[in-house]
Design goal:
The protein is α/β, with parallel strands linked by helices. The chain has twelve helices and seven strands. A hairpin with a 2-residue loop joins β6 and β7. The radius of gyration is 23 Å and the shape is elongated.
């Protein structure tokens, strides 16, 4: 099999692959337990069945990654990455599976599981948001720390975290694939739950694009602003993507102001840091 150059791998993914000379053990399926920080809240039964069929025919091509755990009652292996392969292996009746043993602290376990899922089969946006929130709340990471750990920009992490503030019905629609993340970010711009739901219903009923949703989300507010101005809308979009939060550009003739929204003290601190670093580039 042709080797994959390390530089082509996603950040952190190389930690999931065997190092040169590293031993891959055959561990009993029954000695393995799911990871305590598995970020995927739900696994698609149809996709698991497809994976099981592949394993039945070809075996497991990519080893699982686990840590060895012990207590007074004995020892076991706790998964860091590869829970789908482990579940599929159990479904087809395999007695053992290939495992790479790692020594990983709690943060690394969640980060590595996230990296594997993001590389192989995208997590639902809400699953990613919950995992990012766990890294921040349970392990004290900043948004920048999360971004570095999973190979994303800080603004991407911030945008994903905002999904947790979506109205539940809108989050369900996102999880079910009825709307995209772009739709979800536009819906978040409405703020109040009732307004979010009204916009969601319009999107679903009319089959609106993300751009159409963004325009509808901003219509009816700040009437002094020329919302039909494509240049203004494009500047707002670029600022939102760069800062990872809602940004409004309000113009009155050639004058105006930029309003940057934040939703927590931590997000304010991250925004201030981003803006100060940007200002350093011009000094």
């Amino acid at each position: 099999m042709e080797s994959v150059p390390r530089r082509a791998l996603g950040r952190g993914l190389e930690s999931l692959l065997p190092a040169q000379g590293e031993v891959v053990i055959q561990a009993s399926v029954n000695s393995i337990r799911p990871g305590r920080h598995q970020p995927r809240a739900r696994m698609d039964p149809a996709l698991l069945e497809e994976l099981a069929a592949s394993i039945r025919e070809h075996g497991i091509l990519q080893p699982l990654v686990a840590t060895e755990e012990r207590d007074g009652a004995g020892s076991w292996y706790e998964l860091v990455a590869g829970e789908r392969r482990w579940r599929a292996a159990r479904a087809v009746g395999l007695a053992t599976v290939p495992v790479i043993l790692r020594s990983a602290d709690e943060v690394s376990r969640l980060q590595l599981a996230l990296v594997e899922n993001l590389q192989r089969e995208d997590l639902r946006a809400s699953d990613r948001a919950r995992a990012y929130r766990a890294l921040i709340d349970d392990f004290g990471l900043t948004q920048e720390g999360v971004a570095k750990g999973v190979g994303k920009s800080r603004s991407a992490v911030a945008n994903t975290l905002r999904i947790l503030t979506l109205a539940p019905e809108a989050r369900d629609a996102l999880d079910q694939g009825r709307i995209t993340e772009g739709h979800a970010r536009a819906i978040l711009g409405k703020g109040k739950v009732g307004a979010q739901l009204a916009l969601l219903r319009s999107v679903l009923r009319r089959g609106m694009t993300v751009r159409e949703t963004e325009r509808l989300a901003t219509s009816g507010r700040h009437k002094s602003v020329q919302r039909s101005d494509p240049e203004t809308e494009e500047l707002e979009r670029r600022l939102r993507n760069a800062l990872g939060t809602k940004v409004q550009l309000k113009r009155t003739g050639v004058r105006g102001r930029i309003v940057i929204h934040f939703y927590s003290d931590e997000e304010l601190g991250s925004l201030v840091g981003t803006l100060l670093r940007a200002s350093d580039c011009f000094t």
